[in-house]
Specification:
about 130 residues, Glutathione S-transferase Yfyf (Class Pi), Chain A, domain 2, mainly alpha, about 10% strand, 7 helices, flat
């Protein structure tokens, strides 16, 4: 049995933060699938509001990354892992393509992919494709 168990699903950016950190540090861990999508989808008005907030925040991150390789300087930190959590999901699932619209974020994502131990959320956690769907 693994030293750590992470209850997660592949589409969760929040779970991906923890899974990626566990993998990058070489921890003995094991994912446990949670079926989050058994719930109905969200309200369209709320989703539109959140999309607007995302656009504004992503523009700030893209501008910051125009002057440095990682969020806080020359090396990756927990800030990078925290912010990257939802950015590797395909545009057709996410609803928009952040990397295509923000060139500095695209380059930053490639830098993070180059880290030893990096894995895509779908390779790191269970639940893709969603069971029975």
């Amino acid at each position: 049995m693994a030293e750590y168990e992470l209850y997660c699903f592949a589409q969760s950016g929040n779970a991906y933060r923890a899974a990626l950190m566990l993998n990058l540090i070489g921890a003995d861990w094991e994912p446990r699938f949670v079926d989050f999508f058994a719930k109905p989808p969200g309200d369209p008005a709320v989703l539109a509001f959140l999309k607007g907030r995302i656009d504004n925040n992503v523009a700030i991150v893209d501008k910051r990354l125009s002057t440095r390789p990682f969020l806080l300087g020359a090396r990756p930190t927990i800030a990078d892992l925290s912010l990257v959590a939802y950015l590797y999901y395909p545009a057709e699932e996410f609803g928009f393509d952040i990397a295509a619209q923000h060139k500095n974020i695209a380059v930053w994502l490639d830098r993070l992919k180059a880290l030893p131990g990096w894995k895509h959320p779908y390779d790191l956690m269970p639940g893709h494709p969603l069971p029975g769907r």
